[in-house]
Amino acid sequence: MMIILYIFIGIIALFMVIQFNMIRMAKKSKGIKLSGLRGELKVLERKGTNGLVYFFSPSCHACKTQTPLIREMKSEYKNIFDIDISKDFQTAGIFGIKATPTPITVEDGMVNNVYLGAKPKEFLEKLINKYNLSSVK
Length: 137
Hints:
By secondary structure, this protein is of the alpha+beta class. 43% of the residues lie in helices and 17% in strands.
C-alpha cells in the first residue's frame, strides 16, 4: 500500500516539476527583440507598436474554448493575431513557444509578457486596454 502512495506522490512531483519548467522557459521569452516576422506580424517589429499574439493548436483542449474568444476580439481590435502552431511552427519558434494556449503581449518590437494557458475574457480585455490596442472600426 505504501509503494502505491510513493508512486502517486512521485507522479505528482514529476507533474509539478514539468509545470515549473514550462513557466521558467516561458519567462525566458520575455524581453526577446522580435525579428524575422512575416506577413501581418511584421508590424510588431516596429517601435511604438503594441500587440497581442495568441498561439494555439487545433489538438489543444483548452484552445478550443479560447480560440473563438480571441478571434472575436481580433475582429474588434487591431494588432491581435492568432497563430496556429501546427501550420506556422517558424513563428512559434521566434517567440519561443513551448505550450498552447499562450497569449503574448508585444511592445515596441519586444516580447513584453508571456501568459501560459487559457485566460478569461476580462483578463484579455485588460491587456487590450493596457496596451492601448485600437479598435478596428
